[in-house]
Amino acid sequence: DTAINDIYEIDPAQNAGLEYQYDEVVRGREKRKRLIGGDCDDCREYYEAVGPMPPRLQPPLWKSPVKNSHNPVPLSKRCPHHRDGGTTKKGSNTSNAAHKQNISRHRAAWARGNTPPAYWDIGFPDTQRAEEINESAREMQRKKMEMVEMEAAREGGRYRRK
User: Fold this and answer.
1) pLDDT mean over 94-110
2) Which of 55, 92, 121, 143 has the greatest number of CB atoms lying within 10 Å of its CB?
3) Can you tell me the distance from the alpha carbon of 137 to that of 5, in angstroms, rounded to the nearest whole number?
């Protein structure tokens, strides 16, 4: 297996000229809202349990919608999945990500690395448990590699190929 750092590097042009991850203190509500919303294990369980939030600041349904040339069909005549703006179903990654970005208290310019599996377990695992730990660590590494690959392929991404 090749390491992520052997293939990709941080693009200094997208990171304030720095070639390494650096999180500075960001003050002010509006500036913090622009940061990436992250989550911890507890928050992740919450987002999955609650699912997508309804659209915010939506006018009451009893008011007549304003007809415009873009969409002349009133809300009451639309099918249910278009009535609310096409929100996705509960448990969807897209809707949970949007929900997380709106309300997350864990915000940073760079997402924190995950704790390795079984890091806090005291003692030596047996052979079967060690295999499980190693497999989950490989899965964690694979997900991180996919994320970095997607970021490097994206226009204006924070990573680039070496």
Assistant:
1) 80
2) 92
3) 17
Q: What is the CA radius of gyration of the chain?
A: 21
Q: Which two tokens stand for residue 94?
A: 């897209």
Phi, psi of 126 (to 5 degrees): -75, 175
HSE-up of 107 (CA within 13 Å, CB side)? 19
Separation CA 101–CA 33 (nearest Å): 8
Q: Are 98 and 51 in contact (CB under 8 A)?
A: no
pTM: 0.63
Altogether, the residues listed in the chain come to a count of 162
Cα–Cα distance between 34 and 79 in angstroms, integer? 34
- Tell me how crowded residue 12 is: count the other CB atoms within 10 A of its CB: 13
Q: How many helices (H) and strands (E) does the chain have?
A: 6, 4
Contact between 140 and 114 under an 8 Å Cβ cutoff? The reply is yes
